[in-house]
Amino acid sequence: MAFDMVSFFKRIDLLDQMGGRDNVLNWTAPQARHWFPIFRERCNNIAEQDMLRTLRSGKYSFLVHAIPTFESPRPTALSLGMLCGRSLNNFLLSSHLLEVETGRYIRQQREQRFCQACKRSLGLRVLGDEQHALSSCVRAAEQRQLSFAKILSLFPGDSLRHIQHNSLFNMLNSLNNLSTNQQNLAWKLVAKYTLAVQQSIRSELGTQDRIPNIWKECMKNIFLKSVTKAAEKYFRKRLRRQQRNMPALPAIVISDDSDDDVEILN
Ligand SMILES: [Zn+2]
Predict the structure, then answer these.
(1) Of 116, 122, 144, 262, which has the fewest Cβ atoms less than 10 A away?
(2) Distance from the alpha carbon of residue 136 to the mean position of ligand 1, in angstroms
(3) What is the pTM of this model?
(4) How far is the CA of 206 from the centre of ligand 1 (A)?
(5) 206-216 pLDDT tens trace
């Protein structure tokens, strides 16, 4: 047990600082109490770094970029209004409609997941990810400029002059230098922009049918069915009316000069 503890201290690189193996094995209770908070802090730091490393390398890299430390206030705890709040959450958790994510559903290679809006309007082939959307995308560019300018004015002087023009993305990890109220306002402005982007993509998809939309398909089928039914009813009615108004069937008349040798029996 004592040995396990010693090797654990070594593993978290604390053993030398504690005076080595022999020292640790001969600790008195007050000595152990002295080292406990230091040990706890080291464990917390390692766990935090581990978690950040996992998040950074995976799907949640944007989340870690936007909320760089665990002490940062969570924008998700703010009241942003239902639509804005939901779209910001979707952005932070990478469950948005950007190509980097939707490409995953159709098993597209990551480097092939181009921003369709920029490809269409500018002929550019850029990865459609959060960084692109929040920096240079044509989607909802006006709202991005507006949000950017308003957030920039919250920072003193030219403290953000290193930030690339209109890049909300590069601005995000400076937000925790603002006061709580200012952060609240800034996240609202970011959320507003993410909503504008999502709406823009939705309208693109609506007009292009790039992703099959099950609800749209259902509505179309229901609509088609009701139209077919109405048409059938209309034609049946017309057919009945025609039948009613139709004169009696004309008698068969065969002219006398017919060449056919037909014998008609009365
Ligand atoms: Zn774009």
Answers:
(1) 262
(2) 7
(3) 0.61
(4) 17
(5) 775 555 566 66
